[in-house]
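Task card 7
Instruction: Convert sequence to structure tokens.
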Amino acid sequence: MSVQIKPEPGARAPETNDWDLGGIVEGLRESRELRHNIRFRGRITELPEREAIARIMDQISAALFPTHYGRHDLTRGSIDYYVGSILDTAFNDLAEQVRRGLLLTEEFEDADDTEARRKARDVVRAFGIQLPIIRNMLVSDLHAAYRGDPSATSVSEILVCFPGMTAVIHYRVAHALYKLGALVPARVIAEIAHSTTGIDIHPGAEIGESFFIDHGTGVVIGQTAIIGDRVRLYQAVTLGAKSFPADEHGALIKGIARHPIVEDDVVIYSGATILGRITIGAGSVIGGNVWLTQSVPPGSNVTQAQMRNECALLYDVCARRGDAADE
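Output:
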């Protein structure tokens, strides 16, 4: 005996499924497995998980600044237990994400998974030892932000409200992991900060202490950039590459130094674009919206009007040389 189920009053009748799911799935399988396989070494690999890394980053932030990013009810008697507990969880989870990242490198192309696990735990162990140093650097960044922004009422406000500080915390953690060989998890941490703050700092960049990014949206700092101590950047500053050299086959050459060196005590105002392996001398001030592709000596004050004048003079010189050639 069959039972007919009547639809609820007012419910829509099911529509006919008229799209060719079987054909679409087959076409996607052919692309995925045969024509356009983009898997690393052509095999299925466990990839680092963004959600897991975001959770780990939250735990590490809480260990660095427990009452700001962890729990507000901590006491002197409980704070160390809290920090130890969340770090134990974070480190175990991080070791798994690092292991997955290592499997995407040529070093572990043919290695046994046991070797990748051992290497991952070594990386996390070395990273953990660096956490007090990372926190010391972050405190210097905090003080730089407090000194550099008249709107800041306290370092606590900076920690919980300033996107530049959020980006720098992620950068300091990502940079330490990057230097230890955990390249993919480090990039994921950097991208989490980028998505949250609009500030894009490659974890390979070298940045000194007392670093301050004011406002911050649109800031880009490239992989091989080197930034000294007590440097201040404003929104939409780019420390980028001028060109990308290619090999004889036309493929881009990776890993070469192609981003600026910014020495100590430099201020770079909003919208400035600084490109190539050039040096901004110590104590220089780079004005807003400046386009700079040549080095400047220490103590320079570069403005947009200055750059326009230099371009006009260069154009005049080139024009005169052209006239002379015609004669």
